[in-house]
Amino acid sequence: MIAGERCTRACGFCAVTTAKPFALDQEEPERVAEAIRRLKLRHVVITAVARDDLADGGSDHFASTIKAARRINPGIVIEVLVPDFNGKRESLERVLQAKPEVFNHNLETVERLTPFVRSRAKYQLSLAFLKQAKELDPAVVTKSGLMLGLGESEVEVFQAMDDLRAAAVQVLTLGQYLRPTPRHLPVVEYIMPAAFELYKEIALQKGFEYVAAGPLVRSSYHASDYSPKRAGFSEAGGVKNSLV
After folding, report:
1. I need a labelling partner for 68 at 20 to 30 A (CA). Which of 27, 149, 153, 225 fits?
2. What are the phi and psi torsion angles at 239 (to 5°)?
3. Strands 210-214, 77-81: parallel, antiparallel or unpaired by DSSP?
4. Would you kindly state where each structural domain of the chain is located, as residue ranges?
5. Sequence-separated (6 or more) residues with CB below 8 Å from residue 187
């Protein structure tokens, strides 16, 4: 996770501290790249807090980190998990121009629950953001994820899947929402493993190329199990080491 430990948003599911962030550490991209080299990783997930205090939402910092990681670690698969940058096209373009293999932005929950679960973020904006990413770079793999157990219905989950496919999203993660502290949103339901398996089957039938679904799945769960063809790796031969 780059861009500090303080987030400008206060989502009801997230344990990251909400506070005024510090200035960006300009040396961070190089340090991240060096950490990747020392750990000998071949698939890395780069994510960040929301930085609404910055005009570009932190997109330039993302791009710098991608470029540094690629320069020091040729051949690495880079996956980014980004906030919505308030829907700014120029911020999205900046990240995509750095050429990550996988572009992830989480929908998090169904449309009805979005105002209660996600701070400032909007369901339709996230869908448009993902769709635009694919339009700007057709070669990038687009990915998104949902937390289940917040009170959504099966029909609403299926609708979210359809909405993501309409936005050309290729990879989907489905996991159980777990309450970080008593101050966060309560768990409404614990989804059974069999239900996750059913959701996975249905998602694949709807056209997703790869689906990870289960109680412990998170958006970066075993990220390297899916290896984008663009990076020169086959899914069966995907490496297992990744860093968030």
Report:
1. 225
2. -75, 160
3. unpaired
4. 6-243
5. 149, 150, 177, 178, 179
Q: How many residues are given for the chain?
A: 244
Fold of the domain spanning 6-243: TIM Barrel (3.20.20)
pTM attached to this predicted model: 0.92
Amino acid at 233: F
In this structure, are residues 173 and 164 in contact, taking their beta carbons and an 8 Å threshold? Answer: no
- List beta partners, residue 81: 47, 104
Rg (CA), the chain: 17
User: CA 58, 61, 67, 73 torsion: positive or negative?
Assistant: negative
Considering Cα of 62, then 73, then 168, then 170, what sign does the dihedral take?
Answer: negative
Q: Which residue is listed with tokens 């430990």?
A: 5
- Of 233, 235, 211, 236, nearest to 42 (Cα)? 233
Instruction: Output the six-digit token pair for 199.
Output: 């959701």
Instruction: Tell me, letter by letter, the H, E, C secondary structure of 123-139.
Output: HHHHHHHHHHHHHHCCC
Q: What is the pLDDT of residue 228?
A: 84
